[in-house]
Amino acid sequence: MYFLESVLWLTLNVYHEARSESDLGRQAVAHVTLNRAAQQDLSVPEVVLAPRQFSWTRKKKDNPLPEDPKAFLACLDSAMAALIQEDFTKGATYFHRADIEAPWTRQLTYLTQLGAHKFYQGGGPEEKGERATDR
Questions:
Q1: Which pTM does this prediction carry?
Q2: Angstrom distance (rounded) from CA 65 to CA 28
Q3: What is the pLDDT of residues 33-58, one digit of tens each?
């Protein structure tokens, strides 16, 4: 059951954060989630539901379930690929939309941009008591 729960939360995170991205962009968001889980010794659901870590979990939604089944299945494929393939993000643990200013990234190491997201690694805002936004 743990594996299925992890796959579901990983897929939901990819869906809500990157469903309009390419498969590579969706996989990158999945890798960020998986890298955080490994680095912090947490489960995928714990990472996804941690306070102020992902934009979709900060918003009060009555129903976080996907409204677009086709996009959800594409996100499931991307999440599964991330689970079985090597991490190509160079260990990214943070991301944000490239079209916004994200002051909290100043303390991070920029890694790459994939699609509409920029990816980073390093000690994040929550480690310094700051609010992380737009990840």
A1: 0.87
A2: 21
A3: 999 999 999 999 999 999 989 989 88
